Amino acid sequence: MKYSKYHALGNDYLVIAPEDLEIELTAKNIERICHRNFGIGSDGILFGPLPSQDSDFALRIFNPDGSEAEKSGNGLRIFSRYLWDRKLVREEFSINTLGGKVKARVSSDSKSVQVEMGHVSFDSEKIPVVGEPREVIQESITVLDKTFTFCAATIGNPHCVILMPEVAPDITTKYGSLLEVHPNFPNRTNVQFMKVIDRENIQIEIWERGAGYTLASGSSSSAAAAVAHKLGLCDSSITVHMPGGQIFIQVTDDFMVTMTGNVTKVAEGTISLEMFE
Questions:
Q1: For 198, which DSSP code?
Q2: Residue 122 placed within a domain
Q3: 81: left (phi over 0), alpha (psi -120 to 50) or beta
Q4: Rounded Cα–Cα distance for residues 153 and 184 (Å)
Q5: How far apart are CA 35 and CA 18, in angstroms?
Q6: Which residues span the domain enclosing 155?
Q7: CA distances from 252 to 98, 155, 228, 238, 276 (A)
């Protein structure tokens, strides 16, 4: 079974085309493929290109725990680069996901990809967050021994953004898994611990729903930048600094987000079916 592997700032995905699929993508099989020791190893699987009625392509995105994600910024950039490498695109093109339709463009050297991620909403019913309908801004949430102040957002998938004076991996791994499954979030949530550096720069550490601690995330960058702009802490052009590298985010007045970041091709190969025995 053929695959292509790419990473976007250390966040790695396998791309599997429908014509190359030789097994059913069950949760068990996805977990095995993504496993770092018993499989190829990745932060998820991008299954496509698939036909779409209202876009040039459709894409399904699977987390390494076998669950299906609505949207992934890094995954979309990687998939866009894959389409470019396969000579299926050259100009701007559209991709449909469970989390909505996006537009993408690959740079002439193929190393950088820009994606119009869509509108960020802070509406509790859209994210979703439990409780009465409202914008979820600067609310309290408690896990273990700590009470955090958070904002919630969706850009097609749910996010919990926590403003901190400093961010670090140990805080993210200690609290991220518990925040992901907190009762406030019926569909679980991605978690970003965010430090505002200045009006044009933020730093985030990420706990990704269904994947765990993550070096970089495009949708997390989009959500965190939108929250920083919403709170009046940053202007409309924001560089997001993560352990894996930087993503550039533009936020409009109505919170339409455009993301630009690098993609690196890692490998092409064949998955042996013996792995699933």
A1: E
A2: no
A3: alpha
A4: 13
A5: 21
A6: 139-261
A7: 23, 14, 13, 11, 47
